[in-house]
Specification:
The chain is mainly β. It is built from 3 helices and 15 strands. Helix content is 8%, strand content 35%.
Length: 252
């Protein structure tokens, strides 16, 4: 298997290899989110679960405390393939691009979509949410960038991703072309919210730092519909209790 290992190809909607032993879950019915905690080997009933509702006025302001985030994305990032894994549309990337967060480096693995959004902002659920999954093998931890999406004008960046659609469930399409990630990111990286949470699908491992951008991305109605048509309806997990966690707000 060229370049990519079974580990990478089994990242179903942001999930590690452990999920290959927990494939029997869904977003509805007897295997829906309310039953995930019964799956063997998961942390879905933990106290640091994701997603959460982010209330801006309750977030701990860190305008005078730097929480560094640096994106090391090349304009010629190699978009490796597109996968319909039955839970989401996932785009895998070749090795090389990464982010630095709080002094640690995390390699970009993939991005995928949920519709509607998993995180809510001030109680508002957006039509879409994009997750960009990064992993530090030494720490065995993820940093996931979450960007909310709404309908408006067309986005040329998302046009490039959608050229490979539609995908049948279980289908993988090779791409192996350069892709500029800045074309699908917010124009500014602040304001943003940070908190400690989990993967949002089984095994719901509580080893994720979430970075949620307040500024959403914009897609046309047709672009939103095309993504929705290629994913299960309502492929999102409901918001989880925040418990004693603190959400940090970076405004500079």
């Amino acid at each position: 298997m060229p370049r990519y290992t079974v580990f990478l190809l089994s990242l179903l909607a942001g999930i590690s290899l452990a999920e290959t032993e927990q494939n029997h879950w869904a977003y509805t019915g007897e295997m829906g989110p309310e039953h995930w905690s019964a799956l063997e080997g998961t942390e879905c009933s933990g106290t640091r679960q994701s997603p959460v509702n982010i209330i801006r006025t309750d977030a701990n302001p860190t305008s005078n405390v730097q929480i560094p985030l640096a994106l090391h994305y090349s304009p010629t990032t190699q978009l490796y393939d597109a996968v319909n894994n039955g839970h989401s549309i996932q785009f895998d990337f070749a090795a090389g691009d990464e982010i630095t967060f709080q002094g640690e480096r995390y390699a970009l693995k993939q991005l995928h979509f949920h519709e509607p959004s998993e995180h809510t902002l001030n109680g508002v659920r957006y039509p879409l949410e994009m997750h960009m999954v990064h992993y530090n093998e030494d720490l065995d931890r993820y940093t996931v960038l979450g960007v909310l999406g709404y309908e408006g004008r067309p986005s040329p960046g998302y046009d490039e991703l959608e050229k490979v659609l539609p995908l049948a469930v279980g289908e993988t399409k090779p791409i192996q072309k350069p892709f500029d990630l800045e074309n699908i990111l917010p124009s500014t990286l602040t304001p943003r919210f940070h908190y400690q949470g989990s993967l949002t699908t089984p095994p719901c491992s509580e080893k994720v730092t979430w970075v949620i951008f307040e500024q959403p991305f914009m897609l046309s109605e047709q672009q939103v519909m095309l993504l929705q048509q290629n994913m299960p309806a309502n492929n999102y997990r409901g918001v989880q209790p925040l418990n004693d966690r603190v959400i940090s707000l970076v405004v500079h």
